[in-house]
C-alpha cells in the first residue's frame, strides 16, 4: 500500500468517525442549558421573595388593625408598622415601607372618615364613620401599607435587561371601629 492511499484512508476514517461528536454537541448545548437553569433559579428566588414580601405586608397590616391611630400618634404608629414589616422579611437591601392613613402619608386625615371604592382605589371624605357609602358599606378609617424591594438576578444581563427584579406589595385595610 503506498503512502497516498494510506493517507487517503486515514482522512476518510477521520471524517466519518463519531468520536468527539458528543463533546462538541455538549459544548454547543451547555451554555443554553446553564442559561435556563440560572433563569429558573432567578425566578424561583423572586417568587420566594414576593411571598416573603406578602407575609411582611400581612404582619404589618395585622398590627395596624389591632392598634388605633390618630393624627397625634401617627408618627409612632408608622414607625412601628415599618419596623414590623422590615423585621418580618429580612431583606437586603432593606424594605422600603410607606404607611398612610386615609390616603395621607402624614396622618393629617387620620381622624376623618372615608369611603374607598375601586380598584383602583378612589377616596371620598365623609362626615362621620357611620355615613353610608353605598353598596352596603359605611365610611371608616383605612390604613395603607406599601412595601417595595429589589431582588438581584443571577443572569448575566450586561445592563440589557437590568440586574434587579423590582417587587412590591400594597394592602389597604379598614381599621376596626
The CA-CA distance between the termini, in Å, is: 104 Å
> Unreliable stretches, pLDDT < 50, 5 or more residues?
none
Provide the succession of SSEs: HHHEEEEEEE
User: Structural class, please?
Assistant: alpha+beta
Kindly provide the radius of gyration, computed on alpha-carbon positions and rounded to a whole number of angstroms. Answer: 30 Å
The helix count comes to 3
Residue-averaged pLDDT: 81
For the biggest sheet, the summary is: 3 strands, antiparallel
The number of distinct structural domains comes to 1
Q: What's the multimeric state?
A: single chain
Which strand-content bin applies to the residues?
15-25%
Number of E strands: 7
Which strand order do you get reading across the main beta sheet? 1-6-7
- State the helical fraction: 40-55%
The dominant shape is rod-shaped
Amino acid at each position: 500500500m503506498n503512502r497516498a492511499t494510506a493517507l487517503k484512508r486515514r482522512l476518510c476514517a477521520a471524517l466519518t468517525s463519531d468520536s468527539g461528536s458528543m463533546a462538541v454537541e455538549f459544548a454547543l448545548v451547555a451554555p443554553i442549558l446553564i442559561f435556563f437553569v440560572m433563569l429558573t433559579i432567578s425566578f424561583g428566588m423572586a417568587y420566594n421573595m414576593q411571598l416573603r414580601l406578602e407575609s411582611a405586608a400581612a404582619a404589618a397590616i395585622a398590627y395596624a388593625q389591632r392598634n388605633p391611630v390618630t393624627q397625634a400618634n401617627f408618627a409612632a404608629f408608622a414607625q412601628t408598622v415599618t419596623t414590623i414589616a422590615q423585621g418580618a422579611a429580612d431583606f437586603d437591601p432593606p424594605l422600603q415601607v410607606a404607611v398612610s392613613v386615609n390616603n395621607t402619608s402624614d396622618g393629617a386625615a387620620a381622624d376623618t372618615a372615608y369611603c374607598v371604592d375601586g380598584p383602583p382605589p378612589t377616596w371620598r371624605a365623609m362626615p362621620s364613620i357611620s355615613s353610608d357609602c353605598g353598596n352596603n358599606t359605611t365610611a371608616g378609617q383605612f390604613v395603607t401599607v406599601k412595601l417595595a424591594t429589589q431582588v438581584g438576578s443571577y443572569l448575566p444581563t450586561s445592563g440589557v435587561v437590568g440586574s434587579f427584579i423590582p417587587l412590591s406589595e400594597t394592602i389597604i385595610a379598614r381599621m376596626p371601629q
